[in-house]
Write a structure and sequence with these properties.
Blueprint (H helix, E strand, L loop, with lengths): L1 H22 L6 H8 L3 H172 L4
């Protein structure tokens, strides 16, 4: 309906235009007016239809471009948000990288310190290993000496056992001798007592005899 009205408007406009051109001081010649009048109704309709189709196509292109522009704006906003997020992530990553670099420097310094300590410990271990080897050699020598001394101690133990056995036998023999000596002393005491008694009897007998014979 809009196309028909547009075509009608174009037809009326074309006629009025021709009339204005012919009536405005003779600006358009009679031949030109006749040529314009010869434009048929079909040509005007076709031209109007082409114009309307082009207008519709332009409107569709405009709507498509408008929609595309809106989509592009949305994508741009989304991309801007993602870019901001990525930028924040990059900034955070940069901060983390700086922190990691500081930690790496500290670890490097610590590794150098540990390396020096390890070198010192390695030297100390080598010194201790040498001492251990010397101690092993000393232990081996001491073991040999101990075996020899243990054999000597065993000999001394056997000898001491023999001496103790002999001392025990001699002690028993001494006890026997002491018992014999005590018995001898007792017998000697008895004999001495008997001799004293005999001497006393002899003196008394002598006194008696002297008195009987008036012996001085």
């Amino acid at each position: 309906g809009s196309a028909t009205s547009s075509r009608a408007g174009l037809q009326q406009g074309g006629g009025s235009t021709a009339r204005r051109m012919t009536g405005s001081g003779g600006l358009m010649s009679a031949a030109s007016a006749a040529a314009l009048a010869e434009l048929g109704h079909e040509n005007i309709v076709q031209m109007s239809q082409r114009c309307m189709e082009e207008l519709d196509q332009r409107n569709r292109e405009k709507a498509t471009l408008t929609k595309l522009l809106a989509d592009l704006k949305k994508k741009k906003l989304s991309y801007d948000a993602k870019l901001s997020k990525k930028q924040r992530e990059v900034d955070s990553t940069v901060v983390q990288i700086k922190d990691m670099e500081k930690k790496l420097q500290a670890l490097t310094h610590g590794n150098k310190t540990v390396g020096a300590e390890v070198a010192g410990l390695r030297a100390e271990n080598e010194r201790l290993a040498a001492e251990v080897d010397q101690l092993r050699a000393d232990l081996k020598e001491a073991s040999v000496t101990y075996d020899a001394e243990a054999a000597e101690v065993e000999k001394l133990r056997q000898l001491l056992f023999t001496y103790r056995k002999e001392v025990g036998a001699e002690a028993k023999q001494k006890d026997s001798v002491q018992q014999d000596l005590r018995a001898t002393r007792t017998a000697q005491t008895l004999i001495i007592n008997r001799l004293d008694d005999m001497e006393k009897r002899r003196g008394a007998l002598k006194t008696c005899v002297a008195g009987a014979f008036n012996l001085p």
